[in-house]
Amino acid sequence: MKQSHKKNIAIIGVGLIGGSFALRLHEKKLAAQIFGVEPAPEHARQALELELVDHICTLDTAIREAEVLILTIPVNNICDMLPGIMNKIRPDQIVLDAGSTKASIIDSIRDHPKRKRFVATHPMWGTEYSGPSAAVPHAFQSKSVVLCDKEDSDPDAIEWVEYMYTKIGMRLLAMSAQEHDLHTAYISHISHITSFALANTVLAKEQQANTIFELASSGFESTVRLAKSNPGMWLPILQQNKVNIIEVLEEHITQLNAFKRAIEAEQTEELLQLILKANQIKKILK
Amino acid sequence: MKQSHKKNIAIIGVGLIGGSFALRLHEKKLAAQIFGVEPAPEHARQALELELVDHICTLDTAIREAEVLILTIPVNNICDMLPGIMNKIRPDQIVLDAGSTKASIIDSIRDHPKRKRFVATHPMWGTEYSGPSAAVPHAFQSKSVVLCDKEDSDPDAIEWVEYMYTKIGMRLLAMSAQEHDLHTAYISHISHITSFALANTVLAKEQQANTIFELASSGFESTVRLAKSNPGMWLPILQQNKVNIIEVLEEHITQLNAFKRAIEAEQTEELLQLILKANQIKKILK
User: For B235, which of A173, A204, A271 is closest by C-beta distance?
Assistant: First the structure.
């Protein structure tokens, strides 16, 4: 595919994800100008200071100036703002989001006359940090991006979005929003809940903060790392993907109870089998 | 403290931990000769090939030749072998272990006449890999090591062991075996159980291995990493620290149920508070 020109791109929400997008779009020469929409004054200031965006502007200015709008705000805000944005865009503009849930977001504009200008995406990348200062240069590289319900978007919009994600080093996957929300409940959302719950377990029982600090091995640090994640981003994800998350949480509690039973009743063979089964994750993740 | 000479050191069990000890002891010029006792022929061959040890020998030869013996075998094997080793050592030899539980190990020689030649230690370092090929050069660096029940060891034995751990870059901590086993249940053992259970949750529900591979973000990988851990090492740890681990598992399941309830009943404020509480781990771990 030939791309004749760089595009003017608006990033709605210049935090960890939006800021990292900005860095990659500049680096891969995909953007002529980047317009940042960022209501938090301190984040807006940082976004300019870190040269993530060329301009900080209002949403209306962004819609007027940009050919592509990327929504990198919490998923509840995407649902709230997306219909209004779709109302205002011209027929040649492209809107995409990078939210971690997909069904609720798509539902928010299901019957919108300009639905086909929207591309629902989820780049599977993030860190436990937040804000523009958390943006990093090599974000997204070698990770997967999921495009959902592609048939409901215009081919030219899909084409540019796939071109952009390929340029920034991502592997393209396609699936329905329902499939996406089910798989991410297992492969991403549950990890955050177990990490939050692990932090709360340790903080509830281990009264000496110093002991946690002194004894924390890299194993503990890696399982509890996600507990630092931003509630503004994660609370609405857990709420929007409620049905899938409750199902996976129930399975996870069942699995933990199996360990508890095997340890409590000193069932060595049963405990061994539980660990050997878990070890099979080695075959899938290097 | 002046150390007049390098010591002959025996490493009982040349795997991840024993092999990493060997690398650091060589590097820090602490060892004249390293004698490896390793019953698995393939591991013994690798230990020589990787030049981790100078000799592979029997336990009796190791006891005859070495001034210091370091036990880096699973904690059940330590309990089984330690009394026999203590029977055979001379009054000037030092025996230490690096096991992840401490009360059971100390109990195994509680009334032994040579108890004071033993130093109970737990260097808080490890990876999810195993065997001599998993040994790494900068192991232990900047991590903590716990010495337990120091008053039950001879001062010269403690002095050398602290000297050795300081040389390889570890921070010294001292506590009772009971305190150690309680704290490690919270800060290390539970992380392994949550990781094993998370792997089993995903493997039970996610039938498409390819989807796990494709969608796995770094967040999932870090929470599930420990699920690759060796059952030979971890099964006896979970069994020996049963009482503490059951207590922490119950608390962890309670915490997970709190998340489940808040998500299920759509209690936004309650869910926010659970996440904000978990975020406090940021204050303790950078």
Answer: A271
Q: Which chain A residues are closer than 8 Å to B124 by Cβ?
A: 215-217
Helical (H) or strand (E) element with B28: none
Asked whether the ipTM of the predicted complex exceeds the cut of 0.90, the reply is yes
Q: Where are the alpha helices (DSSP H) in B7-73?
A: 16-27, 41-49, 59-65
- Do B131 and B221 belong to one domain? no
Cβ <8 Å between B278 and A146: no
**B1 in any annotated domain:** no
Nearest to B219 by CA among A225, A153, A87, A99: A225
DSSP annotation of B130 = -
Query: Strand A55-56's sheet: what is its strand order?
Result: A55-56, A31-37, A7-12, A68-71, A94-97, A118-123, A144-148, A171-175
At a CB cut-off of 8 Å and minimum separation 6, what does B269 contact?
none
CATH number at residue A217: 1.10.3660.10
Q: Are B63 and B85 in contact (CB under 8 A)?
A: yes
Cross-chain CB nearest to A201 (options B213, B219, B251): B251
Task: Work out the angle between the directed axes of helices A268-279 and A242-264 (0-180°, nearest 10).
Answer: 140
Q: What is the pLDDT of residues A73-117, one digit of tens each?
A: 999 999 999 999 999 999 999 999 999 999 999 999 999 999 999
What is the pLDDT at residue A237?
Answer: 97
pTM of the model: 0.91
Given CB atoms, is A251 within the 8 Å cutoff of chain B? Answer: yes
Residue type, A117: R
Domain residue limits at A277: 180-284
